Amino acid sequence: MALLAIDVTDSRPIYVQIVDEVRRAVVVGALKPGEPIPSVRQLAGDLGVNPNTVKQAYQELERLGVTYVERGNGTYVAGGRALREDRASLAVGVAERALRDATRNGLAVEELIDALERVAKRNARGRKP
Amino acid sequence: MSMLPMSIDGPTAIRAAGVSKRYAKRTALDRFDLAVPDGSIYLLAGPNGAGKSTAIRHMLHLEEPDAGTITVLGHDVRRDAVRARAEIGYISDGEVTPYGWLRVGALVAHHAQYFPTWDAQYASRLIAELDIDLAPRVRALSRGEARRIAFVLALAHRPALLLLDEPTDGLDPVVRERVLHLLAEHASEAPTTMLVSTHLVHEVERLADHVGIIKKGRLIGQMPRDYLRGTLNRYRFDAPDSWRVPEQAPVVVVERVAAGRENEWTMWGEPGVIRAMFDAGETELRSVTPLTLADAVVALLSMEDAA
Could you tell me if A48 lies within 8 Å of chain B, comparing CB atoms? Predict the structure, then answer.
């Protein structure tokens, strides 16, 4: 299953990576509102991850309103407002990681933003014939 | 005296206190302490010959300690070893059985009789997933084949506690991966405590939620994985050559790497305290990165060398 990818060398704890990956899957539409997410057993087995870590991630997802639990029936993807808000917070997460990487390389925020705009423009041009 | 934390809160599946064992002139365990929380996956890590296997054998009362007490699942193993063993699945670093003339299928059937909780359906599933041939005689098996059978024997009675001594030893990379996934699945199907000893720490990076470090027969520290992740980090920062950690700071510098003004130090201490230390000096903190479990174990052992 390539829906979720975990990297043990990533600086985020594994449970945070699972939370981020599920949110990403929802935002990009790989998981749709109303669809079930894998059971703890299935995901723990698939990823070879401690089931308590998966449980911790699922509790966090529920708390964030990304998913909801139907008693005895599993966990499902929520829709609506939480989903729209999640696009924004997903963007914040990406920005934070990019900024950390920039700081590590001795770059100022302005330099990063400037480079982002230039790269985006160049890519947009590249897509046109 | 160790500078690493030792105390573990809450109910424990295994508790060892002051266990010592000498063989002739060699000290195998030296006032060994251990607390494995209920339902945890606990990594016991340490150099070769540190006493990992000896400690595990004591938990089954396969060795008689010279001193100390061991409680496993509420049983004092000195008095109640038989009852404790009935609730334990054990993968040893030795041979799977003394009955080498048995065929694999007969060995599994024989083993099943000893455990009222034996789950035949689960056993069949494991046999299929681990690609085990039931026909050959046990003595004709390779090390890896014997190890796969040991997994079936240890897991299929759904014990409350698994003692896994170098569980992936002799397995090829594909089976190794499969076994680690089976263990994760196993733990999510029924509440199970696992004590894993291995020198291949990276293999249990995703599984372990507690870690204990054993050295020269002594436990020098044990803590939750999350605590370790919060307390041991790599700090990348710019600072002049002359910069030092202020004296009295509750911080241990485990490793220093420098290239010009750029430094990468591995440090043990409260991240808030360490950040404040950087804010106060003529330094600029660029990044803070946690260590992988494998790197953390090496760092903890080297901290102890320096102490």
Answer: yes
Q: What letters, b where the CB count within 10 A reaches 16 and e where it falls short, cover A13-41?
A: bbbbbbbbbbbbbbbeeebeeeeebbebb
Domain range list for chain B: 12-223, 228-306
Q: Spell out which residues of chain A touch residue B286, defining contact as CB-CB under 8 Å.
A: 103-104, 106
- Looking at the complex, does the CB of residue A109 fall below 8 Å from at least one CB of chain B? no
For chain A, positions 3-42, list CB contacts with chain B under 8 A.
6, 8-9, 11, 13-14, 40-41
**How far is C-alpha B45 from the chain's CA centre?**
5
Query: For the structural domain made of B12-223, what CATH number should be given?
Result: 3.40.50.300
What residues contact A102, with CB distance under 8 A and at least 6 apart?
A108, A109, A111, A112
Chain B neighbors of A53, CB-CB under 8 A: 206, 209
Euclidean distance between CA atoms A93 and B199, whole angstroms: 35
Q: Which residues contact B80 (CB under 8 A, 6 or more apart)?
A: none
In chain A, residues with a C-beta closer than 8 Å to the C-beta of B206 are 6, 8, 14, 47-50, 53
Distance in Å, alpha carbon of B215 to nearest chain A alpha carbon = 26
C-alpha span between B168 and A47 (Å, rounded) = 17
Which residues of chain A does B183 touch, with a Cβ-Cβ cutoff of 8 Å? 48
Per-residue model confidence as pLDDT tens digits over A58-117: 999 999 888 999 887 789 998 766 666 777 777 888 888 888 888 878 888 999 999 999
Q: Do B182 and A54 touch (CB under 8 A)?
A: no
Query: For chain A, what is the radius of gyration of the CA atoms?
Result: 17
pTM as predicted: 0.88
> What was the ipTM of the complex prediction?
0.85
Pick the CATH number of B228-306 from 3.40.630, 3.30.70, 3.30.310, 3.30.1150: 3.30.70
